[in-house]
Design a protein that fits this description.
single chain, 271 residues, alpha/beta, D-Maltodextrin-Binding Protein, domain 2, nine-stranded mixed beta sheet, 11 strands, 35% helix, globular, Phosphate-binding protein, phosphate transport, Phosphate_ABC_transporter
């Protein structure tokens, strides 16, 4: 098992196959809602350069993106987490060789209602809130108001990173509200005065208020220099080394122009 994962990681360091896109081809991308805005932005620009190429995009979460690669229903599976050992094992039984391509960086930002007076929480406080042990904002320096815990669903790569980095694999309080997307979580927090949630940096807007973690704000700079602790790479997975339009699209995304588009949607470039 470890050998399988190691071979995939080594594969990331290898050069991507250069290719010329075929005429009239369709490219299908599925998965992470965190990666989706990047995919949409880059796909729009790519299709302008290649009018004969059609790109189909859908979300559904990181687990669904990787599943789409294993099932052969997508050319690219978007994921905001790395592939799991059990997914590698399943791929092996199907004769699939999932190859990860790191296309951006991201940090996960805790967000609250815009009128919430709290500005910072420690990782320990975040964990206690999501365990249901801290129940009122007054306990962390805020107003006397019940905390409404909002989380992502279990198919989300964002949830899995939060579960690993904040919860240390402990279970989120069962009473937490769950939403299937970053955008849905923003809407839920914006409409609930006592709410707290967590989103990918690219979804942060004026509707909600971002909290610092351990007195460090989540920004491109603090993510790149390692100061901000809740961060992760973003991936696109392919079955084996990409060829044709798939390779050309990924090469474009990783080019200077493509990384500029990554930055335009609020995500963090890889260089």
């Amino acid at each position: 098992m470890k050998t399988g994962i190691k071979s995939i990681i080594i594969g990331v360091c290898m050069a991507m196959v250069a290719a010329i896109p075929a005429l009239g081809e369709e490219l299908v991308l599925k998965g992470s809602t965190t990666v989706l805005p990047i995919a949409q932005k880059v796909a729009e620009a790519y299709m302008k350069l290649h009018p004969d190429i059609k790109i189909s995009l859908s979300g559904g979460g990181s687990s669904n993106g990787i599943k789409a690669i294993l099932d052969g229903t997508a050319d690219i599976g978007n994921a905001s987490r790395f592939i799991k050992p059990k997914e590698v094992k399943l791929a092996t039984t199907k004769g699939i060789y999932p190859v990860p391509h790191r296309i951006a960086l991201d940090c996960i930002v805790p967000v609250v209602h815009s009128q919430n007076t709290v500005t910072n929480l420690t990782t320990a406080q975040l964990k206690e809130i999501y365990l249901g042990k801290i129940k009122n904002w007054q306990e962390v320096g805020g107003k006397d108001m019940k905390i409404v815990v909002i989380s992502r669903d279990t198919s989300s790569g964002t949830f899995e990173v939060w579960e690993h980095l904040i919860m240390n694999k402990e279970r989120v309080v069962p009473s937490a509200l769950t939403v299937p997307s970053n955008g849905g979580l923003v809407q839920a927090v914006a409409s609930t005065p006592g709410a707290i949630g967590y989103i990918a940096l690219g979804y942060l807007n004026q509707e909600v208020k971002a909290l610092s973690v351990n007195s460090i704000p989540g920004t491109p700079e603090t993510t790149r220099n390692g100061q901000y602790s809740i961060s992760r790479p973003l991936f696109m997975f392919t079955n084996d080394w990409p060829r044709g339009t798939t390779a050309d699209f990924l090469n474009y995304l990783l080019s200077t122009k493509g990384q500029t588009l990554v930055e335009e949607v609020g995500s963090i470039t890889v260089y």
